[in-house]
Design a protein that fits this description.
- The chain has 321 residues and is of the alpha/beta class.
- The chain has one domain (61-214, 237-319): Vaccinia Virus protein VP39 (Rossmann fold, 3-Layer(aba) Sandwich), CATH 3.40.50.150.
- The protein contains 8 helices and 12 strands.
- It has helices spanning 70-83, 89-98, 127-134, 186-196, 213-218, 236-245, 260-269, 291-306, and strands spanning 14-19, 28-33, 40-42, 118-121, 140-144, 151-153, 157-161, 171-177, 197-208, 232-233, 248-255, 312-319.
- The two termini are 37 Å apart.
- The chain binds zinc ion.
- Residues 4, 6-7, 9, 34, 36-37, 39, 238 line the site of zinc ion.
Length: 321
């Protein structure tokens, strides 16, 4: 019986066979899509899933520590504070003269502030945290099960080797950038999020979305299915349902899909895996696409994002009051 592990429905769930197409191993895995909540999920978690995370899958590159002098750090903080909505003339002026701080789009307008304690779950070696540190954030922490050992960064943050359950303390912002879909038990993940989140805290989840044009068009050749590493491909409905069942509500949603949903999926249809020599990723000139096609894919991605049909999104969640 194919019972949905998000909503419990077991009626008419549809089985799909997906292949490993990042490394081109082509091993087959069974997935099924719930007809009630829409979640696409792997039927059985592979017992040997580590073998699908070879060293080249992950960036273990250690970010270059930036040495920022005290004054420069202070000025950068003023500039970032201004962009995040804390009015100050100096910060505003620095932004006009030197340009905006290098902050990711999903952060802007989210309510995240410099003083917030931020936890990045699935942080890898901390590239994103280093970027935030460089723009003035201080209370930064990462956790990742795949790094070799704990890392104390010289420039002011640490990353623990481990799971969310290994982390002590509470955080104002907990971020999961394309990590929730890799976790075998989403209910456990949400229970832990509930424990780690401070009062009035924000959870930010970036994930692939199955209620998308790319899934409708490409089905098991959809690149973001990423068998067998992605265990859960949520629909908008299934993520909201999961969140609600653990006392969270989705307060905002931003779609951020890119041209990759087209070129990587089109390659998959043609049997070209993501890391193949003639993949657009490795060699655009020897790939199956012209630059005009790629530009068109990018335009289409922006259109889909506006229609809420892109294949990935950022969900902003808060605890229900
Ligand atoms: Zn379901």
């Amino acid at each position: 019986m194919l019972k949905c592990r998000i909503c419990g429905n077991s009626i008419n769930n549809e089985l799909h066979i997906a292949r490993e197409m990042v490394f081109g191993l082509r091993d087959e895995f069974e997935y099924f899509q719930c007809t009630s909540c829409g979640c696409l999920q792997i039927k059985d978690i592979p017992p040997d899933v580590e073998k699908y995370y070879p060293p080249e899958y992950y960036s273990f590159e250690i970010p270059e520590p930036q040495r920022i002098g005290l004054l420069r750090d202070l000025l950068k903080r003023r500039r970032t504070a201004s962009l995040l909505g804390q009015r100050n003339v100096l910060g505003w002026l620095l932004g006009v003269i030197y340009g905006a701080p290098d902050l990711p789009d999903w952060l802007l307008g989210s309510g995240v502030q410099l003083e917030h304690r931020i936890l990045d779950v699935g942080s890898g070696s901390g590239k994103l945290l280093a970027r935030l540190r460089n723009e003035g954030f201080r209370e930064l922490h990462g956790v990742d099960p795949f790094i070799k050992s704990d890392m104390i960064q010289e420039n002011g943050f640490c990353i623990c080797k481990g799971e969310l359950s290994d982390i002590d303390g509470q955080y104002d912002v907990v971020m999961l950038h394309h990590s929730l879909e890799h976790m075998p038990d989403p209910h456990l993940a949400f229970r832990l999020l509930g424990q780690k989140l401070a009062h009035n805290g924000l959870v930010l989840i970036r994930i692939p979305v199955v209620s998308s044009f790319a899934w409708e068009k490409y089905k098991t050749s959809w690149f973001k299915l990423d068998a067998p590493r992605h265990f859960y491909l949520h629909s908008y409905e299934s993520l909201c349902l999961l969140a609600r069942s653990h006392g969270f509500q989705v307060v905002e949603l931003r779609y951020d899909s890119t041209a990759k949903q087209f070129w990587a999926s089109e390659q998959c249809l043609e049997g070209i895996h993501y890391l193949a020599d003639n993949s657009y990723r490795n060699d655009p000139h020897n790939s199956m696409f012209t630059q005009a096609q790629i530009d068109r894919f990018e335009e289409m991605a922006q259109e889909l994002n506006a229609q809420r049909k892109g294949d990935q999104a950022c969900f902003y969640l808060r605890k229900c009051s």
